[in-house]
Every structure is written in structure tokens, then in C-alpha cells.
Amino acid sequence: MPKIPFTTSFKQKNRVLFKGVKVPKFVQWSERNQKNDFQHLERQIEKDIAFKRYTTYLSEFNTFFIFTWRTKEDYILNKDYYWNLFFRKGFNSGSLNSKIGSLFLSQRLNNTVFQKCLKIDFLKPRTEYRLFLQNNTDVEGLEEVINYTQTNRDLQLHCVGMNVNPHAKSPMLGTLKYIQPLLEESNNLYKNIDYLKLLEIAKMQPSDEPGKVKIKYLLQLLAKSKLSSPKLVDDGRYLIFC
Predict the structure, then answer these.
(1) Could you give the CA distance from residue 218 to residue 81 in angstroms, rounded to a whole number?
(2) Is residue 29 part of a domain?
(3) pTM above 0.90, yes or no
(4) Is pLDDT above 50 for 190?
(5) How far is it, in rounded angstroms, from Cα 169 to Cα 158?
């Protein structure tokens, strides 16, 4: 929904807002309503729209990546420009797979709403995060994003999430086959795991099959990227590493 400038009259705002949410014509907005009431209504509608949008994305894609900026306070950066440049370079160079379904959101993440979608608090309220989603059939796509991000000076990964629900629209079946033993190893396995514990889990996995080798390598990559706090979220639908 487009932002409504508050320099316009209440009547103009009403027409735009009510038309956007398909409010019946007989509903009118009183001129006596305070500006903060209107702002509250607008924010709430924007949150509702964002929630539906994020929920749709999480159902359409099986992997997500949340990025933060490495920039210092005294370093001025056009974040929108470099966010787009990051993916343009990645896809053009082949560092990122352009043949699989993917989506990077041009705007910063709504932290509160996205956390509501996953039913967990893991984002700082005032920190700017960016969201990238993919449809992966195996772990190579995750490894590509992690490796490519390590070469970038402006962006860093804050979190990686995988849909581990076998009944999902696009499940990572090849990966689930090998991640499942990790999930079953202990009820508390994915709570408060540190860097050394994550490496230990990777080493414990037998490597007599190619898929198991891939999982071991992925866990080592995640640990190297300091994404060593795994959690099962959204009623067990997503496994996230932060």
C-alpha cells in the first residue's frame, strides 16, 4: 500500500486508504478524528498487509536468508543501491544460481511482523534487516549464498532458515533425509548450541553417502559464519540458524 502524505486533507487520505482496503462507500471518516488515530489505522493496515505477504513468501519458498549491514556509524552507504548490486553481481557472475526460484525484497524487513510469522523473537527492533528467499532442492543453494556473502564487505548473514516440513509446497526433500536424524538425536539438541557443539554434531554424522557429506559441510559453513544457534520455529516447520 502506498504511503499517504500527511500534507493532504483527511478527505483525500480517506479516499486513498478506503479504496485500497475496499471499504464500503457509506463509511465516512470524520474530520474531527485526530491525526494520530489515522496514523494508527494506516500502520495497522500496513502490518496486516505485510503479514499476509510474508506468510505467502514463506509458503512459496523453502529457504530464507536474513542479512544485516556491516557498515559503521560514520560510513555513509546507499543501502538500497548496494542491496540490489549485491544480487545483480551474484547472479551475473554465477556466484548465485539464477535458474532457481528466488526473490529479494527491495525494502527493509518489518521485524515485528516477520517475527510474528515465525512465532519467535530473534531480531533487534531497531536494526535494519533485508530478506532474500529461494526454492532449493538441495543444500548447494544455501552454500552458494553463504560463500558469496563471505566475500562481501557490506552485508553479512544474520540468519538462515530452511523449511523442514515434509508436507510443505516445496520441501527440501534431499536435505530433509539427512537433517531428520539431527532433529531426532535429542529433544534439546537445537537449544543453546554453541560453535563447538555445532562442529561436534557435524563430525558425528556418518559420511558414507554424498548427502551426508553435504550436510556436514553445510553445518561447518554455518558454524564458520557464526550462525551457530539453531532453533525449530513456527511449530516445527522451520529450522533456523542465527
Answers:
(1) 30
(2) no
(3) no
(4) no
(5) 25
